[in-house]
Design a protein that fits this description.
mainly alpha
Length: 142
């Protein structure tokens, strides 16, 4: 497995996931984004790199569509347009919690940044559920 930078698609596993999205029909892309987190949540023996890295990538795609989410600009990310992933926000938030959990390989060694990124992605994915109308004259944290 190769990793060349710190973004959610800057590793072989996530880049392969992005290639699969690009090769899929437009109608199938949202289902593929849903598959990675669903697989991670069902993994009985912990979250290894082969399951965890595409999960972080999928969560990054969901988070990019959240208010204040960072767009995925990596040349290794999907190049084809994605449908709305709004309905996947709760799933993305749950899987990020799993990616940061004690049974996840993403919080060890060179994957420390992936864990950091997962935390940022999770915060963006949870934001709509927590969002409230700002109080006039009061700054918001997120």
């Amino acid at each position: 497995m190769g990793t060349w930078a710190t973004g959610p698609f800057d590793n072989d596993v996530a880049a392969d996931f992005a290639d699969g999205l690009d090769e899929a029909t437009p109608e199938r892309r949202a289902a593929l984004v849903r598959t990675a987190p669903t697989r991670a949540l069902r993994a009985p023996d912990g979250l290894d790199h082969s399951v965890g890295l595409p999960t972080v990538a999928a969560a990054a795609l969901v988070a990019a569509q959240c208010p204040g989410g960072e767009p995925v600009t990596s040349g290794y990310g999907p190049q084809q347009p994605l449908p709305s992933l709004v309905e996947l926000r709760p799933l993305a938030a749950r899987v990020v919690a799993r990616a940061l959990g004690p049974d996840s390989d993403l919080v060890e060694g060179w994957c420390t940044y992936a864990a950091h990124l997962a935390g940022r992605v999770g915060a963006a994915a949870r934001r709509p559920a927590r969002a409230r109308a700002p109080v006039p004259g009061q700054d918001t944290l997120f």
